[in-house]
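JOB MANIFEST
job_type = single_chain_structure
chain_count = 1
residues = 125
[input]
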Amino acid sequence: MENLDINWDQYFKSIEKVCPWSLTSYQQGRIDFVPYSQHGMWMRDRHWIDSTQPHFDAVVYVDAPNDTETLDRICEVYEDSMHCVYFWSHPEYTKGLDNQTSIPIIIQQDKKSLFKARSNRKKHK
């Protein structure tokens, strides 16, 4: 699994301006790193709330497809998820902020936690 070669602590520190809660989640073990699997992603989405696994704020799927169009399509499929929000990152793609990961990944994040964190952030600005 590719995540073993990544300094995730350094990565989450580097994105603190756009995602200030991710470093804390990572350091507290609330981000799960798993190999990408379409079926696995679908199952986690479907059972996000009633899962018997420990609660995670996010799941990072490593070994994700290397094509940005494919990553985009995968995330679009889950756009209407009731429980999760999906993002992707690719080493060759940036929206100008240089926050991309060094490997292609898909991020599955708890929708309620994300919206709550964003709302709290807006209140404190």
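[summary]
The chain has one domain: 2-123.
The first strand starts at residue 31 and ends at 35.
exit_status = 0
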